[in-house]
Amino acid sequence: MTTITEEPKKKSTTSVHTVLQNVFCQQLRYVSCNSDYDIVCASDKRYYFNRCELAKVQCKERSLYEADFTSCGVHRM
């Protein structure tokens, strides 16, 4: 008698955030950020007009993340 054993299926380790970011970046040419002025500081020590603008840059620089304002040299009140 021959026994066939199947290997367990691998679970996806892709986070929901990563999936959403990939979809966002694939549709980047259609993304129009609103003009809400809500400055954010990022890990590259640069300011971005709002989180949407930062998210657009993150499509090309995946290691970029929102940082505390002290990282950009300003203490936010």
Automatic annotation (TrEMBL):
Kazal-like domain location: 19-74
UniProt xrefs under InterPro entries: Kazal_dom (IPR002350), Kazal_dom_sf (IPR036058)
Pfam families: Kazal_2 (PF07648)
Gene3D superfamilies named among the record's database cross-references: 3.30.60.30
Protein name (database record): Kazal-like domain-containing protein
Native source organism of the sequence: Dreissena polymorpha
